[in-house]
Design a protein that fits this description.
5-stranded antiparallel beta sheet; Rossmann fold; globular; GMP Synthetase, Chain A, domain 3; 9-stranded mixed beta sheet; about 500 residues; single chain
Length: about 500
């Protein structure tokens, strides 16, 4: 049996190949046959430049159907796909390139010049630009090739993608996601959320992230659903597209913005059967305000880069605000503290085991071992409790990770750079509440010279050279010294208690 994810998806939609797969408003409608053919052209290109099963590519492109075609081609040919956030700086990108040594780097056209320089320096043999236009030169070149309909034989344990997640030490980790991980999650979500070929999914998420690339895309493809494909979350476009949609997936920010939109009325969402939220905690305020405005109970679910989706509130049954629901089929969850597996309603670190859990971190065997228990559970680092019925409520992180607008921000990565800046003696980065993004990083700083503080703009200019925009602190606060305990560890809890609401004022 071929466990190649593309084979599994193809087996589900091959009998409806004339149905619309992806609808890009104002541009073109792509049938399932069109998408299959598009991916076969990209397969031809990949194999033509010598890529084979197990080789790696990096894609840092804007959202487009062509980028989807490239991803599906990687699945078909057994090439490992690594998507990167489009806001990553060249400094960040260099680390990823050095780490996985791709045979091909694909970027957006405006970044090609700097990418060429980097790839030459790091001896990466192939680099191309892929834009969003239907007349993009690379796409036009691809469509002139001969189709290659290969479906590489893959096992469930073969790596399909490597997705980077920031580390608590500042060093990003490449999570190896297998064909089996992705297919098991897709089947579970299709059934749990009641997806069918009659559904139309509104897709306004980025596709460099688990949510948009795996959760949304795979669930829809496996169900032979139609996808309305928006380049980004744009309220007028979303309002117009929702009229023809039955399901919307989004991050909490999407829903908080829709609540405040005066034109968002019943005529827009009356045909929608399901609103799904993930990637960041959904506040009870947003849940209740959306319910009051629309009558819809947002379905919140919970997952991670390393695991895909773990839990979900039910399609049928009570959706409780502030909770992330029950474990998906074949997935086990538990809470543990001080090496003791906890009873219901006791708070501890959440651990998970199942076919959804990744195979490990790329070239980090020791780190992989650290993140798993002796009996094979992955340690999520999230704090929560599981009630008698199995419903999970999350309450924070065991580390100090910040989730801003659905993106993970690890303070250590920012602190390392801040501490190299002349004028900064030491720093502590924490998350502060934000009305739109849930929380955002802020920096607490101690100066070398309290009489000569450097400006926020100066600090920002230096950080922007190395960090994606969403990682840049929203505020800088200067204090005389950081609070520490007897062991010399910075007491970030004290800082959070004092500055948690500084961005809300």
């Amino acid at each position: 049996m071929n466990n190649n994810l593309y084979q599994i998806l193809f087996d589900e939609f091959k009998n409806v190949e004339t149905n619309i797969c992806i609808d890009v408003p104002g541009q073109r409608k792509w049938s399932y046959k069109d998408i299959d053919v598009l991916s076969s052209f990209f397969v031809s290109y990949l194999r033509g430049i010598g890529l084979k099963k197990g080789d790696r590519i990096i894609s840092q492109t804007e959202k487009s159907v062509a980028s989807v075609g490239l991803y599906l081609a990687c699945l078909r040919s057994g090439v490992i796909y690594t998507p990167l956030n489009t806001s990553y700086t060249i400094s960040e990108v260099e680390y990823f390139i050095e780490n996985i040594q791709p045979k091909l780097f694909v970027c957006s056209p405006e970044r090609l010049k700097e990418i060429i320089s980097t790839c030459k320096k790091l001896e990466i043999p192939n680099y191309r630009a892929l834009g969003t236009s239907k007349t993009d030169p690379f796409l036009m070149e691809i469509l002139e090739l001969k189709q290659d309909n290969i479906l590489e034989q893959c096992s469930e344990d073969d790596t399909a993608a490597i997705l980077f997640t920031s580390g608590t030490t500042g060093k990003s980790k490449g999570a190896m996601i297998t064909h089996g991980n992705l297919s098991s999650n897709a089947f579970a979500l299709k059934k749990y959320w009641g997806f069918t070929g009659d559904d139309t999914l509104l897709h306004a998420l980025p596709i460099f992230h688990v949510h948009g690339l795996f959760v949304a895309l795979h669930t829809a493809l496996l169900s032979a659903s139609k996808i309305i494909f928006l380049e980004k979350f744009d309220i007028p476009q979303v309002n117009e597209s929702l009229k023809d949609s039955s399901v919307m997936m989004g991050v909490p920010t999407f829903y908080s913005r829709l609540i405040g939109e005066k034109n968002f009325d019943r005529g827009i969402y009356e045909g929608v059967r399901l609103f799904i939220s993930g990637s960041a905690p959904l506040t009870e305020k947003t849940f209740n305000e959306f319910k009051d405005k629309t009558g819809h109970l947002i379905l919140e679910r919970y997952g991670m880069t390393e695991t895909g989706m773990i839990t979900s509130n039910p399609l049928v049954g009570e959706r409780v605000e502030g909770t992330v629901g029950f474990s998906l089929p074949d997935i086990k969850i538990r809470a543990r503290k001080d090496n003791k597996i906890l009873s219901p309603n006791e708070k501890g670190v959440i651990e998970v085991k199942g076919p959804n859990v990744f195979k490990g971190y790329w070239q980090m065997e020791d780190k992989t071992k650290e993140e798993f228990t002796d009996d094979g559970f992955f340690i999520t680092g999230d704090i929560g409790q599981i009630d008698e019925s199995g419903r999970l409520t999350l309450s924070g992180r065991s580390g100090d990770m910040i989730i801003s607008g659905g993106y993970n921000v690890y303070p250590k990565e920012i602190e390392i750079i801040l501490n190299t800046i002349n004028g900064i003696q030491e720093s502590a980065v924490i998350g502060a509440k934000h009305e739109d993004f849930g929380e955002c990083p802020i920096a607490i700083l101690v100066s070398d010279d309290p009489d000569n503080l450097i400006s926020d703009n100066f600090i920002n200019s230096l950080l922007q050279e190395s960090l994606a925009k969403y990682k840049i602190p929203k505020s800088y606060i200067w204090i005389n010294s950081l609070p520490i305990n007897a062991m010399g560890k910075v007491q970030k809890k004290d800082l959070r208690n004092k500055y948690d609401e500084i961005l809300l004022g």
